[in-house]
Amino acid sequence: MYRPTLGLSRMTRLVIAGLLSAVWACGAHAEPTAVGVVADPCAGVPLHPTAAHKATSDWYGAWMKEWLASDWGQRCRYQAENAALPKATAQRVVFLGDSITEGWKVALSNAFDAQHLDRGISGQTTEQMIVRFKADVLHNHPAVVHIMGGTNDVAGNRGPTTVKQIEDNLATMADTARAAHISVILASIPPAAGFGWSPEIHDVAATIRTVNAWLRDYARREHFVYVDYHSALSDEHGGLPLKYSEDGVHPNVAGYQVMQPLADAAIKAAMARSPSR
């Protein structure tokens, strides 16, 4: 979702810097990734940009192209962090999502710890989230999973899609969690009226409203917890106003401060429904 370009606001640049620093800290670039079945598929994944990437005019795009070619679902992003986690408690929550989730820990770092895990990855679609669902959710043994995705699907980050495909992907993750006896929070897609990196995408606010209406109804039917960030953040046009964002898509600190108590209440409700209780 993030691409370092001219014209970004100071807040957005700070969030990008924080996210990239977290990614770079995960490991160094090794030799090109081997093919086929290997002992460690993550050994050659470029978890940080190299000098060769930075020498190109669009170094972020070149870096992401190489990373996604060898690790399309980006399962390697949190491999080291997951391996280093202490044993899960009955209070563990995993937040799974895209850059809006990943940016949360940059804006409100005290909201996350070893039992409240931020597993957001910038730019990801719901299909990519499915690919890493077992690695970043099931294997971390949470009591609750907070699923928030769809922004990048609407933006067309990985190509064309349909509303039905977005809904199916979100349902697949929720159903997988329930089968593993994990309580589910389904989060609304936060508001946006357009995407600076994909200006050709139209009817953004209306599409987001459509998916959110389905999410709310699906959560009710399936007895999942639904948390509505969209209503709390949206302006009258379905956009994300400047008081909560500097690019109209990603919340700033004030935006996350609105979201946090809603998340806390949703977690409390989901914990009460936990199969382990």
Concise summary:
The protein has 277 residues and is of the alpha/beta class.
Draw up the topology in text.
Layout: H1 10-24, H2 51-54, H3 59-70, H4 79-83, E1 93-97, H5 99-107, E2 116-120, H6 126-131, H7 133-136, E3 144-148, H8 151-155, H9 163-179, E4 183-187, H10 204-222, E5 225-227, H11 229-233, H12 253-272
H-E order: HHHHEHEHHEHHEHEHH
Helical coverage, percent range: 40-55%
Superfamily (CATH H level) name of the largest domain: SGNH hydrolase
Note the beta-strand portion.
5-15%
CATH architecture group name of the largest domain: 3-Layer(aba) Sandwich
Structural class: alpha/beta
Here the CATH topology of the largest domain equals Rossmann fold
Task: Let me know the largest β-sheet.
Answer: 5 strands, parallel
Low-confidence stretches: 1-8, 20-31
The overall number of domains is 2
How large is the radius of gyration? 18 Å
Instruction: Please work out how many helical segments DSSP would assign.
Output: 12
In one word, what is the shape?
Answer: globular
| Lateral arrangement of strands in the main beta sheet | 2-1-3-4-5
Distance between the termini: 38 Å
User: Can you count the beta strands?
Assistant: 5
